[in-house]
Amino acid sequence: MKYVGLSKQVQRNNINSFLLLLVFPLLLLAMFYAFFFFTGDQTTEDANSYFIRVMPFVLIGVGIWFLIAWAGHTAFIRMATGAKPLERKENKKVYNLLENLCISQGMAMPKLYIIDDDSLNAFASGIDQRSYSVSLSKGIIDKLNDEELEGVIAHELTHIRNRDVRVLIISIVFVGVFAFLAEMAFRSLRFAGSGRRSSKDEKGSGAIILIAIAVTAVAYLISVLLRFGISRKREYLADAGAAEITKKPYALAAALRKISGDPMIEAVESRDVAQLFILNPKLSAHKSASWDNIFSTHPPVEKRIALLEQFV
């Protein structure tokens, strides 16, 4: 395989991710078009007519959803993880590690947070310079040596430098739209037979709901697969970026090995937030050979460690 430099890989991955993100709104519109087509007289003219009338309202609704999520994502992530600010006076070692790495890369220093959990994990988040942050669990601070912790922080800084966190947050917002619509379709099925309706009306409404469930379920599955395509490749790039920054790939490999033994952050219940972490805390670290790995937001930790150890 021909070697491609890190900067070239980042550029290529950003372009691919941008194209993937364009697919999300197109997928949403295609979902509504499919719904109108299958619930109407199955003629293109009827589907086009309904679609043109409804499309502006769909786009406005999604736009409002997106703006609310964009503005409130920082508070939501902090609530979902229990992260709290970590000041220099509380832990000079960690603060200095982050500051020195930022100086070496000419980066503005992101906010630093700590998660009060003895498990080992970390993540970066934010969409711009004001909201960029790095969060570390209490366990990862206490149980990693300085070189290993430096590698983890460098990994998260690479996500910020490569704008991975922005792309992931955008993808989370869009997938959330499909998840909400799918949930609404399923909930509607419960009440399909409620109220005073004729048998014919009940059958008609039931058929429409079943079509809605099928269409939203397919769209949701496609959106999740697109999100996986965005997040999995970027973990490899962040590992490579951390190795380049610290010149110590062995340190990050050792850190990943320790983290894989206990990545479960108890406060994290949202699968969307879980994908931001260096290892997904909602999944076992030992599923590389299982069916579940196909739907994992992260590549197998064993492969990541093996790639890093090639440069030792």
Largest sheet: 4 strands, mixed
Report the uncertain regions: 284-292
Annotation field: number of helices: 10
Distance between the termini: 20 Å
Percentage beta strand: 5-15%
> Judging from the principal axes of the Cα atoms, what is the shape?
elongated
Task: Fill in the CATH topology of the largest domain.
Answer: Zincin-like
Describe the structure.
The protein is mainly α and 312 residues long. The protein folds into two domains: 6-79 and 171-216, no CATH class; 81-164 and 230-309, Metalloproteases ("zincins"), catalytic domain (Zincin-like). 67% of the residues lie in helices and 5% in strands. A four-stranded mixed sheet has the order 1-2-4-3, sandwiched between helices. It is elongated.
Task: Provide the descriptors you would attach to this structure in a database record.
312 residues, Zincin-like, four-stranded mixed sheet
